[in-house]
Amino acid sequence: MEKIFKFDETVIRVGIESVDCYDALDQLANTLCNAGYVKRSYVEAIIAREKIFPTGLPTGKYGVAIPHADICHVNSSMIAIGILKDPVEFKNMGNIEDTVSTKIIFMLAMNNSENQVKLLSAFMGNLQDQELLKNLAEAKNVHSVIKLIDGKIKF
């Protein structure tokens, strides 16, 4: 039976100001940690993983990053969403020599490897939707983000 992923507005941040991708990751990971979805170790793990396995994804005008860390750092599954005030550069996941000007971060915290793969697969279709990405990048508040994304991920 197909499930619909339910987002938690407490881990959605709009207008994040950051100096670089690691600062943005730190802020969003701490949001997940403060909400109890991840262990304190997740914050360091997400940054360490980004340095080795970049997550920038060139998706047209609005670049996206999809960082995640190992399931051992996760208490319960959730996706945090960060809309950056100004884009920051993430290294391209397909070619680390290139960078992606990133405005939207979807930070995955999955406590089950199988669900992580299913969720990523279900999620990828949304990243092709330029209208959705444009609306997310221009969202002014958390409620706008929820309205745009809720019910979009079925796995």
From TrEMBL:
Source organism superkingdom: Bacteria
SUPFAM superfamilies to which the protein is assigned, alphabetical: Phoshotransferase/anion transport protein
Residue ranges constituting the PTS EIIA type-2 domain according to the UniProt record: 5-152
Annotated Pfam families: PTS_EIIA_2
Name of the protein in its database record: PTS system, galactitol-specific IIA component
